[in-house]
Amino acid sequence: MLRTGIVGLPNVGKSTLFNALTRSRKAEAANFPFCTIEPNVGVVNVPDPRLPRLKELANSEKVIPAAIEVVDIAGLVKGASEGEGLGNQFLGHIREVDAIIQVVRCFENEDIHHVTGSVDPVRDIEIITTELILVDMASAKKRIERQGKAARSGDKVAKAEIALCEKLIPHLNEGKPASTVQLSDEEKKLLATLFLLSAKPVLFAANVSEEDLSPLEKGDYSTNPHVKAVEEYAASHLGTSTVIISAQIESELAELPPEEAREYLTDLGVSDSGVGKLIRAAYALLGLRTYFTYGPKETRAWTIHAGDKAPAAAGVIHSDFERGFIAAETMAFSDLDTLGSSAKCREAGKYRIEGKEYEVKDGDVMEFRFNV
Predict the structure, then answer these.
(1) How do beta strands 3-7 and 288-293 pair?
(2) Helix axes 156-173 and 185-192, enclosed angle (nearest 10)
(3) CB 322 within 8 A of CB 312
(4) pLDDT of residue 296
(5) Please, what is the Cα angle at 68 between 280 and 184, to 5 degrees?
(6) How many other C-beta atoms can be found within 10 angstroms of the C-beta atom of residue 347?
(7) In 16, 100, 197, 312, which residue has its Cα 20 to 30 A from 169's Cα atom?
(8) Contacts 24+ apart (CB under 8 A), 168-175
């Protein structure tokens, strides 16, 4: 299972958000720096409105959603790359995750201490990005030194690694993360073997107050210009997106039954839970996609990587399915939803038999033929 790490400066709402995501009280949330030291880990179900519809169509006994792992990592401070605060621990824990949700504080509250003394989310983003870049610069320089002898003896991999690092260092030196450097497909594959922190995909969670949620959902940034600044910075500097969320509200929603939670959101003038949006965005950030199987016993979401072919998708269920793959009986969820049954999909020509080279689409409803 792929892991997403929740990172940010101390006291920006990371642990509160983690508790809301995992519907738990695993992470201590307190008004002082470094209340999280050892990372908390939880498994989070991916909300998917297609699952209830499939359950209804098949009259399934149970539903199993897709899931990802979320890690709440200790807060970082300026100088972490040189060991400040819990720097070395923090950076080591980031190295172990596949993607990053960076929580940035976009609310004013005199009662909640900000480690830098004022609320400025773009500055906070730059502090964390800079620390990751500094660690990566040191790693790239060490890699060049370590591979020098092998490269001089003609080792092609060593030469390629050195060339890549020499391309990366000037880019990093300009304060730009490794994720934004222009690389060929071969260089991208090689970059993955360097395990650089700033090469990890990142998503921003703009943590706002309860009062700001409804105006922001309607596109009114007048009450909170911080969010607009984060969205513009994330898009222009890092090519990524931002999800608006109130960690405090989400932690309260997590304590309520689903119906009461929906009523609470309606009273706030908000259409959807920020946690749901954030989980779906993190799932996509990890390069994950979903296909479905459905029937009287079970409706289930299965997780695959974008670009996976039908045999690999079958192998997620069982290795025998991939080993003995013959074909995949396939419908698009949208067609099944509209027509109401697999029989009607067949009649309408929407029921397909796909072979080994078929690239599975998000939302495919599948049944596999195999023989071992």
Answers:
(1) unpaired
(2) 90
(3) yes
(4) 96
(5) 75
(6) 11
(7) 100
(8) 168/136, 168/140, 168/196, 169/137, 169/140, 169/141, 172/133, 172/136, 172/137, 172/140, 172/198, 173/137, 175/126, 175/129, 175/130, 175/133
Structure tokens at 354: 């796909």
Nearest CA-CA partner of 355 in 337, 370, 365, 335: 370
Share of the chain above pLDDT 70, in %: 90
Torsion of Cα atoms, 120 then 122 then 128 then 133, to 10°? -150
Backbone phi, psi, residue 61, to 5°: -75, -35
Identity at 39, one-letter amino acid code: P
Which distant-in-sequence residues (6+ apart) come within 8 Å of 190 by Cβ?
160, 161, 164
Query: Which letter does DSSP use for residue 193 in this model?
Result: T
R_g of the chain computed on alpha carbons = 23
The rounded mean pLDDT for the chain is: 89
Q: Which residues pair with 41 in a beta bridge?
A: 71
Q: Write the pLDDT tens digit of every residue in 309-321.
A: 999 999 999 999 9
Looking at residue 90, its pLDDT comes to 64
Residue 31: the pLDDT is 41
The whole-model pTM stands at 0.84
Pairing assessment for the beta strands 288-293 and 242-245 based on DSSP bridges = unpaired
Answer whether residue 67 shows pLDDT above 90.
yes
Cβ neighbors of 313 (< 8 A, separation 6 or more) are 291, 302, 304, 328, 360, 366
- What integer pLDDT is reported at residue 125 of this predicted model? 94
